[in-house]
Structures are given as C-alpha cells and as structure tokens.
Amino acid sequence: MDFWPEFLASSWGKEFLAGGFGGIAGIIAGYPLDTVRVRQQNCQEVGSAFSILKNIAAKEGPLALFRGMGAPLATVTFQNAVVFQSNATLSRALDSYRSPAVPPSYGSVALGGTGAGAIQSFVVTPIELVKIRLQLHEQSESGPLSVAKNIMRTEGWKGLFRGLTITIIRDSPSYGVYFWSYEYAREKFHPGCRKSSQESFKTMIFAGGLAGVASWLCCYPVDVVKTRLQAQTPSSPVKYNGIVDCFRKSVRKDGMGVLIRGFGSTVCRAFIVNGAIFTAYESALRVLNTTDDNINNNN
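-> structure tokens emitted (299 positions)
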C-alpha cells in the first residue's frame, strides 16, 4: 500500500515521473514535423517541410499529421522515464565518489547518456516501427495495436524488433551528446544552475532545444537508414539485407543527399520538442521536490 508514496518520494521515483512528463510534452509539441521527417526520409514526399505539411493536411486531412501518435504517446511516459532515470543513475554511479549535492562531471553525464541510449533502444524499437508503418500509410485505417498484431503475424516476434541494431547505433552516441549538451548549455546560460537547479524557463527551453539539435547532428544519416529498414515489409518492392546494404542501395539510387533528406524539418522539430521535454522535466522535478519538502516539514 505504501509503494507509490515511497517510490515518488525517492530520487528514482521523481526522475522517472518527471521524465514521463517530459516525454508527453515532447510528443505533443513535435509530432506533425516527425511525420514530415519520416515521409521525406522514405522518399514519399518532396518539397519544403511547410509545403509537405500543407499537402498532407489538404489531401488526407489535418488528423493525418498525427497518424501513429497513439503508439508513442501510450508508451512515451515509460520510454522517456527509462532514459532520464538511466542517465541519472549511470551518471551518479560513474561519479560515486562525489557528494550528492555536487552534480556529476560532464564526462560522466556523456557516458551515462550513452548507456541510457542503448538501454532505451530496446523499448523504443517496436514503438518506432509501428509509428513509422502508420506514418507511411501502412494499414492507415488501423490503429497501433492492429499494426503490431499484423507484424507479429507476418514477421513473427522478431519482426517487432526490426531495426534494433541500428537503433542502438543511433541512440547510444546521440544520447551521450544530448545530455552533455544540455548540461553544458544550461550552465553557460545560467552559471551555477547545475548545482542549484534554479535556471529560468528560458534557459530550460533554449538549452533543451540546443541539446536536441546537437544530438540529431551526430546521428541523422543513421536515422535515415533506420527509417528505411523499419519501413520495409515482406511485400516491399526494395529489399535491404541489413544496414550496409540499405546504405549502399539508398545512396546508389538517390545520391548522397538522401542521407540528409528531411534534416531541416528534423532540426526545427528537435529544438521545439526538446525545449518542451526539458522544460516539462525540470518543472516536474521542482514540483515533486517542493511537495516532498513540504511533507517532510509538516512531519
């Protein structure tokens, strides 16, 4: 009976819940541009991000911009909570000799983020697979559960984890850069805030936005290959026999430019989404810590 109050009173519980709030904020803020990114990467749409948004809304209706959002939204609390909790735990473990009142070193934050990215890849791979299939009109009249069942029926349980290896390759370094960039940027914008946790909302938004952009800069070509591998179905006209084969065939057919196709809309989305994620995350932590302090003082 006392599990939840005790869990939410612990640092683990606070990090976990705050990470979940951050994930929800990020999904809602940036999903339409994520749909644009996936269609650009898979060569289903050409033109600027704005023209693609207008085209999708005009031809398929505004709700088409949010097709497939159910899968990540239903699981994003857990997914994002895993990332933030893993990073916090690993960063602290790497700097176990430091006082809890002293923030982890930047190196430990980067390594903790790298480990967190690898861990969350096992959670995010099936989610992104279903999302991509829906965004590309795969069974567009069905929901996430129907698409997941169809994948298991036609490709087996292994099919749900199509793209796991390249997701790990994408997320491990990018999350290391992500968390390092955020910690570095917010300290530069608001010196001393890593220790006091009293940065302004403006600092949270801009530091989070820059962290999102930095993380995509280091992994975008890998993400293009990942999208194409996960978009592939047993009935796809083009068959990719692994990561290297997908890279070669994509470049041979569409040129080197295919590796940065959709990058502009992705960077724009990354700033918006990650500004929202870190603002919601830090705000939730403040509320949880303040509530905990008030309870302790009353007792």
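The radius of gyration is 20 Å.
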